[in-house]
Fold these 4 entries.
Entry 1:
Amino acid sequence: MSAGRKLSWDWFAGTIPENVIVDETAYIETTFSFQFFRSIRPGGVAYGRGASTYLGTMFDVGPQGRVTLGDYALVHGARIICDAEVSIGDYALISWNVVLMDTYRVPLNSHERRKELELVPTRLLRMACADVPARPIRIERNVWIGFDVCVLPGVTIGEGSIVGARSVVTTNVPPFTIVAGNPARIIRKLEPRTTLPHAPT
Ligand SMILES: CC(C)(COP(=O)(O)OP(=O)(O)OC[C@H]1O[C@@H](n2cnc3c(N)ncnc32)[C@H](O)[C@@H]1OP(=O)(O)O)[C@@H](O)C(=O)NCCC(=O)NCCS
C-alpha cells in the first residue's frame, strides 16, 4: 500500500499512499488526510506545483476515485468524497469545512438504503458504500469556494468564479460569476480577466 513516505512535521503516524503523486514543491500538513483514502487508481490523488492541503482535509476516495489538485491550489480543510473524479484547478482556493461529493454513496430509495445500512456492520471497513452512480466534479482554475460550502455530484464551477459561504451548489456555475445561497444562485457577474496567465513553468 505505501512505500513509507512520511512527513517529518506530521503529528499523525501515517504515510503518504504509494499511488499519491506529490510535486516536490507541494505541501501536505498531515497524512491523516489519507485515513479514508482507498483508491487503487494510479495518481489516486495528484498534487500540482505548490499545491497545499491543510489540517481537516480528508480524501474520502473510493477504489476507482481520483482527485487532482492543480498548481498552487489550496485546500484548507475540505472533505472530498470521490468515487469517480474530482478535479481542482490551478489557483483554486477551497476554504474550511467545504464538502465536495461526486457520489452520495447511499441509494435514494428507502428500502435499498435500509438494506445498505444492514450491510455496514458486516464490513471490515464499517461504512456505507452502495453501488450508486458517481458524477465527476470539476472546479476550474482561479475559483474561490467559501467556508461550509457543499458541492453536489456532477457540478462544474467555471473559471474565476466565487461561491459564497454556506452555499449548496446543485448546478453548474458559469465562469466569472459569484453565486451564493441554498441552492446557490447567481449574485452577480465578475469582470473576466482573460489575460490571467497559466501557472509559470
Ligand atoms: C460571496 C462573497 C465573497 C460575496 O461578497 P460581496 O460581493 O461583498 O456580496 P454582498 O455582501 O454585496 O452581497 C450581495 C448579495 O448576496 C447575498 N449574499 C452574499 N453572500 C451570501 C452567502 N454566503 N449566502 C447567501 N447570500 C449571500 C447578500 O445577502 C446580498 O443579497 P441582496 O442583494 O439581496 O441584499 C461573500 O458574501 C462570502 O460569502 N464570503 C465568504 C468568504 C469566505 O468564506 N472566506 C473564508 C476564508 S477563504
Entry 2:
Amino acid sequence: MKLGLAFVRNNLTRDNLRFARQCGVTHIVVHYANYYQDHDQLPEKFAGAYGFTGSDPIWTYDELRALRQMINDEGLELEALENFNPGFWFDILLDGPRKREQTENLKQLIRNVGRAGIPTFGYAFNLMNVWGHSHGPWARGQALTAGFLEPEETPIPLGMVWNMVYDPGAPAGTLVPPTREELWGRFEYFLKEIIPVAEEAGVVMAAHPDDPPLPTLRGAPRLIYHPRFYQKLFDLVPSPNNQAEFCVGTISEMVDSDPYEAVENYSRQGKIAYVHLRNVRGKVPHYVEVFIDEGDTDLIRVLRILHQNGYQGVITPDHSPELTCAAPWHAGFAYALGYIKAALTLIEQE
Ligand SMILES: [Mn+2]
C-alpha cells in the first residue's frame, strides 16, 4: 500500500509537497477546484457556502500536465484529482437545461485527465456536499476538530449546488428537491455517459460516500449513506473503472454499518480506488472527527483487511484534528501520516 496526502488548491505549494515527501508520502491527491474563490463576497443568502464556482472552462490537458510535472519535480506521483468544480456539472446534478453540454465537457475533461497520466478521478454525486459541520475542541487534549451536531437544516438556495454558488444572480427561492428515485436516475445517467469514456481514457472514477451520511440533508435525498449503496452504484454500470473513493471515516459514521465488513466486501471485489483513512467518535446524527488512533474504529484492523485482500492502492489521512502549535495543520497531518506509515510497515511484514 502507498502513503498519500491530499491538498486543496490554495494549499498546494512546493514547500507543502516537500513536507509531504518528508513525511514519507509518495502519492498526492489534488482538489483542483478553487473552493474558496471570492468567499468574502458571498451574498447573505448563500451564507455557509465555500465560495463561487467561477465560470472557468474545464481543466485543459496542458494545465493538468503542468500540475503533474510540479508534483513529479518534488519526487512524488499525482494519484488523483478529487472533485469536479461544481460549475462544470451543476445541471447534471440538477437535471437542468445545460446537462448535455456539461456532459460533453466532463467527457473531454476525463480524456484530458487520462492523457495527462492521472490515473484516478474522485467525485461525490450529491446536491449539498459536506454541510453542517461545526468546529470545536472535541478531539483528545482539546484539539480543534470538526463535528456534526444536528445543525439547523436550511433548504438549498437557488444558484447553489454542492455547497458552492454557480449563479449569484439566481432568483430568490430554494431548490425543489428531487425524489430519491429521480436522483438515482441522474446518477445512472452520469455513470452511463462517463464510465465508458473513463474506460477509454484509462481513468478510474472513484465515488465518495455522502458525508455526513444521512438519508436526507437540507431537505433533499442523499444516495450513498450506507455501505450497501456502493453495491447499487457498482451494479448500475459494472466496470473496473467504476470504483469507490473509500472514506473509512464516513463509513464509520453510518448507522447500522460495520466498517470492517464494508472494507472486506469492497476490497475483495477490487472496488476501492483509494482510501480516505480517518477516525470518528459517534455516528450520524452526532459524531466528531478525532485523532486517527482514538475513535470508534480500529484502523489498524482496517489496514490489515485491505492488505489481506491484496489492496495495493493509496491511503490518505483525509482529515486530522489540529495540534496546538505554530503549524496546526502540518502537525496534525504529520502525526496521522507517521501513524499510518508505521502501521503499513508492520502489516506488510506480517
Ligand atoms: Mn473522506
Entry 3:
Amino acid sequence: MSTVDPTLFERTRSAALLSLLENDGFVFIPDSIPLSLLRELKDECLDARNSALRAEGQGELQYRSSLAPLGMKGRELLENAASSEILEPLFGRKFSCSWNASCYTYYEAGDFLAAHLDGVENCEVTLLFYLDATTPGNDPGESGLHLTLYRQDEGGVVVPRKTIATTAGGIMLGFGSRVLHGRRRLAEGEHIFMLTACFTSAPA
Ligand SMILES: [Fe+2]
C-alpha cells in the first residue's frame, strides 16, 4: 500500500505537460521531487555509489557511467508512487516498472551516453529522478549537464535538435523508446547522480 501523500508530485500533473511531452518526446519538471523524499533517495543513492559498477559500451551504443541497484526507498518509489502519483494521473492508465531497466546511475567527469533509443519492450515511458547534480551553466550546446534530444536528418544522419538542462530535484519524463536522446561528456568537476527507471503499461 502506498504511504505517499497524495499532494506530492502535483507539479507533474497538467495537461500542458502532457502536450509538451507529446510534442518534444521528453519534458523536464524542475523541483518536482518532494524535499523529504529527495533527501531519502539522495542518501540511498550516495550510499549505493560505493558499490556502483562501471558500465562502458564501445559497440553500437557508446556510453560510460556507473550503475548500482536500487535500495528500499528507490524500489518503494517505483513500486507505488511513480505509477499511482505521476504516470497514472497523467496518462489515465496504470504502469508497471521494468526492474531490469531501473537503477541508480552516476555520471562523472568523462562519462557520457551517445544518442540512442531505449528498449521498446520495457521502456514505454522513461522516468529520470535527478537527485544530486552540478547546476548547468550557460552552454547548453556542449554541456553534459543537459539531456540532448536528436533527430535524423534527410540523409539519415543523427543531429541534435534540442537540449534540456537537468537540475537536482527535478523529474524528466520521456518517450525514450521513440525519441533519440543522449548526454554529452561531462567536464572535470561535474556530476549527475540519478534514479533512472523504465515503465510499461500494466495489463488491463
Ligand atoms: Fe535512454
Entry 4:
Amino acid sequence: MTTPATPTRTTAPLPHWETIPDDLPAAIVEVKRALRARIAASGRSVADVFAEVEDRIRVEVADIGATLARGEQVWPVLDYADVEAGTIAPELVAAVQRRGCAVIRGHFPRERAQAWDRSVVEYVERNRFFENYRGPADDFFGSVMSNPEIYPIYWSPAQMQARQNPRMATVQSFLNARWTHTSEGRRWFDPDRDTMYPDRIRRRPPGATSGGLGAHLDPGCLDLWMTEGYQQHFRHLFDGNVAAYDPWDAAYRTEAAQYPGSTMCSAFRTFQGWTALSEMRHDQGVLHTVPIPLAMAYLMLRPLLDDVPADSMCGVALNQAFPVTERWHPLLLEALTPIPDVQPGDSVWWHCDMIHSVAPVTDQQGWGNVMYIPAAPWCAKNEAYLESVRAAFRAGDSPSDFPAENYERDWDGRFTEADLTAIGRHGLGL
Ligand SMILES: [Fe+2]
C-alpha cells in the first residue's frame, strides 16, 4: 500500500512505504522512478550526480592507498587516556571523522579484558553451554562447526560489567559527539547518555578456518530508500546535492521506520563496535572496513543508474544484510582495509553506515575473542527498544533483535538487577 506522499521542499515528492510493500518489485520501480525525477528536478542528471560522488570517493581511495604505501596506519588509533582527558590531537579527531572508524588503545586494562575472557568461559562451561548448543539459529554468522564461534550469550557478568563501565560511557560519549545531534531545529539524540544494546560474544579458537563474511552494511535494506524517515535522512542525495550530504548528521535518522527482518537492528548506533578480549593480528581473519563515510552516497545512488534493472536495488533484499559487491561497487571495495593488530582491552569502532567485512582465515593463529558493544545514544528509537531489552534482561532471554534462543534463562551466575551500577541502570532506562 502506498501511503500518501508527504509534501517536500522540492517539486518531486517521493512515495514512501512505512511497512513492507505488498508488491515489492512494483514499489522499487516506483520509488526509483520518483528518485530519478527528483534528482532531475535539480537540473542535473543522475549520472552527473553519481559522477560527482565517484570523483570524491576516488580521492579518498587514493589517499588510503597512499597511506598504506607509506607504511602508515589507515585506521586512526587513539589512546584511551587521551579520550578520558579530552586531550586528543585535533588532527586525530579529524581523522576519525574522515575515516569513520577508530581503534581505542587501552580502552580497558589488558588484565581486565583477559579476566573477562576467562569469566565468559567459566560462565558458559558452568552452565554446560557446549553440551546444550543447538546450532546457529540464523545464517548471518552461520557456521558448520559443532562448537559455535558466535555465542548467543547476552547477560554474562563480563558483558554487563563492560557495558556499564565508566570507561565505556566515556568512549561512547566521545564517539556520539562525532555526530551532529541537533539540526533542522530538532535534537535527535543525547550524546552523553547511552542506551544499552546487548549483543553477542565471538570466541574463535586457534586453528580455526573460516570463510569470513562478505562486505556488507548493517543499518537497513530496502527501507533505506523506501521509508519516509530514511528518505528525509538522505534528502540531500535525493535532491542531487552531494555537497550538502553529511554522513554525520543524524537528522530524521532516529525516527526512521525500518522493515522487520532477521538482520534488522532496532537501535540507532552512532558506531558499531567491539572490545577485544584477546590479541588479534591484522592478517588473522579480522574486521575490514571501507573507511570512507561518503561511500553511503555511492551505495544509495548506484541503483538509480541506467544499467541497473528497473526493479533492482543492486542486490539489496529483505531479510539479508545489504551486500556490497564487485559487480556494482568495485571502486568502494578497492579501499577495504583491515584493523591494525589489537591487544586485549583495545576497542574497535566504525560508523554505523560503513561497509565492513570479516576476512577469511585458514588455521588461525591465536584466539579471536570479542564482545560486541556499540554506541547507541539516548533517542526515541533506542528508548522504545529498551522496553524489550529490560524484559529480556530480567528473564535471561535473547533480546528481541536476535533469534529467541534464550539459553541463559536458568543459568547460574547470570548478571542480575542488583549488580547494576548507576550507569547500568541509566542505560537500561531504570
Ligand atoms: Fe555487520
